[in-house]
Amino acid sequence: MNEFKKEARNTVRRGANRASYDVEKINTILDAGFVGYVSYIFEGRAICLPMAYGRSGDTIYLHGSHKNRMLLSLLEGKTGSMTVMHLDALVLARSGLHHSVNYRSATLFGSLEKLTDPDQKTQALKCVVDHMMEGRWEGIRPMLKKELDGTLVVAMTIETASAKIRDEGVKDEKGDMHLPVWAGLLPLRQIAELPESDPFLPEGVAVPEHVTAYYQTHKYNVNVSDQT
Asked: What pTM did the predictor assign?
């Protein structure tokens, strides 16, 4: 499947020219994120909460306590929705009306299932941890049985999805182009700063390679455009 089928729930209506249903593009947005905004209904009211997640193929994994009302509500309703969004730039126009942002967002719709098999739960939690940082699971202590038993793990199978992306400059009125008002983009990005070791670490415990590798990849790099 190269594209998700357009249905009523995933079809982008406003700004449809910015929509994408490409599976690979949507997965790229998901894999670059850390937090998903999960929507659910609790006692007849809509609620949206940020959650850490992991993705494996067409499955999103979420976890929490066995009393987590969001996960329980999702399981009760058997369906759910989650959005991941990246803010890439502030679009500063000549008029307030045309101020905007450049962004990449993906909204998912799927069915929910509670995982009960210990091996499946373990693999799902590994997926969540490694989604945060590749190789992290292998660098930490194994999960205890009581921890696994005390964790509610939910799998959401992505049934359909859509992305919406704005990646362009200022769109001002032609009549405003002559005004002596600065307009342009202010690019934004997420960077990693130097790792800070926990003060209670035993002597001699160094920052692991997977952490330093992540830092080197995502640290701030000065380039020519930064000097202008």
From this structure: 0.92
